[in-house]
Automatic annotation (TrEMBL):
E.C. number(s) listed in UniProt: 3.1.3.7
Keywords: Hydrolase, Membrane, Transmembrane, Transmembrane helix
Organism of origin: Halobacterium litoreum
One function term, GO molecular function aspect: 3'(2'),5'-bisphosphate nucleotidase activity
Name of the featured protein: Bifunctional oligoribonuclease/PAP phosphatase NrnA
Main enzyme class: hydrolase
Domain of life: Archaea
SUPFAM superfamilies registered for this protein in UniProt: DHH phosphoesterases
Length: 369
């Protein structure tokens, strides 16, 4: 679904109705009113986030399991803001990082990610950065004081910073740095600029004024050479083979593409396969699935703002061991359980059942999205 602008009072609605009839200068006036309302809301979010974090001594910035580049970049920007507010901050992930793009990003920006699998008792609060699913609780040790993500989401939390127009979480953070009247360090500006480009798929997925304005602000301070290096990461031979299988086994219905790559050596190869399908002409949403360590893993990508990758996977699979990601990119894991113990003679039958049932579930979910 398209993001909502928010509630508008009755007098404003009356002005909208009048503008539809009158047009001309009235149309410009109502657009200006709505722009001011959106800006005011963003300023309020910034003030609330600043006041909340500034009241702490230390904060854990937590990105989802196998986070997107956008989430990682946003966490780097938030870490700089925390330092500006006199708060010690460190970035954690809910799970391991397997994506080649994310690994390359962490290496280039010297970002060391510890997995937040234990209560983070040494921190006064946690901020969930990116993602599109439920908010981690950490057994309230520490409490989650804020959620920063680029899409409005139905999450039960008092402070959710979600841009109505932003196409990337990095956009929100970049605008906050600009509002703080701070000149970002080069590595921070570079990370955020690449995060915006990755989150919006080079401004193809979302064409928001907020994204362009944030990118324009960062451009002056960023290192274009680092961005070029990130846009062309190396590819292992195993990943190359998996992508070949994905292309050969693809099935397309309307603008949806699904493929089965069989056994995969790493989840990152599966994600690369899903990204590859999304580049095919006419494909707006894609999913690649395969078996990794006795688990059926599915990577989903959505290039259409009306489709959420998280919602697609949540609808397709009733029970998953793990579901992470956001509206643009998500991954689901369904354990095979007892089926992982089948004999060699029964393996082909099991593979055929996995293929048929998973394709059916994914296409059905895509069509209902």
């Amino acid at each position: 679904m398209l993001p909502e602008v928010g509630s508008v009072p009755t007098p404003t609605l009356a002005l909208v109705a009048g503008t539809v009839v009158a047009g001309g200068a009235g149309g410009y006036a109502i657009n200006a009113v709505l722009r001011r309302r959106r800006t005011a809301a963003t300023d309020e979010d910034f003030a609330q986030l600043r006041d909340t974090i500034a009241g702490l001594e230390s904060v854990a910035l937590v990105v989802p399991e196998n986070p997107s580049v956008d989430a990682l970049a946003a966490s780097i920007g938030l870490r700089e803001l925390c330092e500006e507010w006199g708060v010690s901050a460190r970035v954690f992930a809910e799970g391991t990082v397997t994506s080649d793009d994310a690994k390359a990003f962490c290496n280039l920006f010297n970002l060391s990610l510890d997995v937040a699998d234990d209560p983070l008792d040494d921190y006064d609060g946690a901020v969930a950065v990116g993602g599109g699913g439920t908010v981690p609780s950490f057994a309230n040790r520490p409490p989650v004081v804020a959620v920063v993500r680029h899409r409005p989401a139905a999450v039960d939390h008092p402070l959710v910073v979600a841009g109505n127009e932003a196409g990337a979480t990095s956009t929100i953070v970049a605008r906050f740095i600009e509002r703080a009247d701070r000149t970002p360090e080069q590595d921070v500006a570079t990370a955020l600029l690449y995060g915006i480009r990755a989150g919006t798929r080079e401004f193809r997925r979302v064409r928001s004024r907020e994204d362009f304005q944030a990118a324009s602000f960062l451009q002056e301070f960023a290192d274009q050479g680092t961005i070029d290096a990130l846009r062309a990461p190396g590819m292992s031979g195993e990943t190359f083979d998996v992508i070949g299988d994905a292309i050969a086994n693809r099935e397309r219905r309307a603008s949806f593409a699904v493929t089965n790559v069989g056994a995969v050596p790493a989840v990152s190869a599966l994600e690369e396969a899903a990204d590859t399908l999304l580049r095919l002409d006419g494909v707006s949403s894609a999913a690649a699935f395969g078996v990794h360590e006795d688990t059926v893993v599915t990577a989903c990508r959505a290039d259409d703002v009306r489709t959420s990758a998280m919602d697609v996977l949540s609808s397709a699979f009733d029970r998953t061991e793990a579901l992470g990601g956001d509206a643009d990119a998500a991954t689901a894991r369904v354990p095979l359980g007892l089926f992982s113990r089948v004999s060699a003679e029964q393996q082909q039958t099991l593979d055929e059942l996995i293929d048929a049932s998973t394709r059916k579930a994914l296409f059905s979910s895509f069509e209902q999205a």
